[in-house]
Amino acid sequence: MVQQVTKGIKISVETSFEGTFYKNYKMQYAFGYKVTIENQSKDSVQLHAREWTILDSLNNQETITGEGVIGKKPVLKPGESHTYSSGCLLTSPYGAMYGHYNMINLTTSKKFNVTIPAFKLSAPFALN
């Protein structure tokens, strides 16, 4: 698990390897990740948008942007947390992801970014 705190918002990420399959005649490696967003600040905040960078060991890079997470824009009061699960496909058994969430401090109406720490994606059978 990786964790990082930015401006009182703690991001924790756990990853899992979900398996392999063929798509368009290419081997795909499926990974899952579970993210917990915890508000350790004194103000209520809302997650507005996200931006992810996904890398694999073949130098493929993809950037994903969008509103909310899994169709939600959670509001977190001080001490509250929100956990969600998602996944991605890679064309190699190794990779990494990182990014940020666009948040709004509901007390001050100020927007700010919260770092999603880089985390590794690796298929267990490919490890030395």
Layout: helices, strands, pairs:
Blueprint: E1 2-6, E2 9-23, E3 26-39, E4 45-56, E5 61-67, E6 75-76, E7 81-90, E8 94-105, E9 111-122
Antiparallel strand pairs: 1-2, 2-3, 3-7, 4-5, 4-6, 4-8, 8-9
Q: What would your notes on this structure say?
A:
It comes from Xanthomarina spongicola. This is ApaG protein. InterPro entries: ApaG-like (IPR050718), ApaG_domain (IPR007474), ApaG_sf (IPR036767). Residues 3-128 form the ApaG domain. By secondary structure, the chain is an all-beta fold. It has one domain (2-119): ApaG domain (Immunoglobulin-like), CATH 2.60.40. The protein is 0% helix and 70% strand. It contains no helices and nine strands. It has strands at residues 2-6, 9-23, 26-39, 45-56, 61-67, 75-76, 81-90, 94-105, 111-122. Strands 4, 5, 6, 8 and 9 form a five-stranded antiparallel beta sheet that branches. Strands 1-2-3-7 form a four-stranded antiparallel beta sheet, with no helix packed on it. A hairpin with a 5-residue loop joins strand 8 and strand 9. The radius of gyration is 16 Å and the shape is elongated. The mean pLDDT is 95.
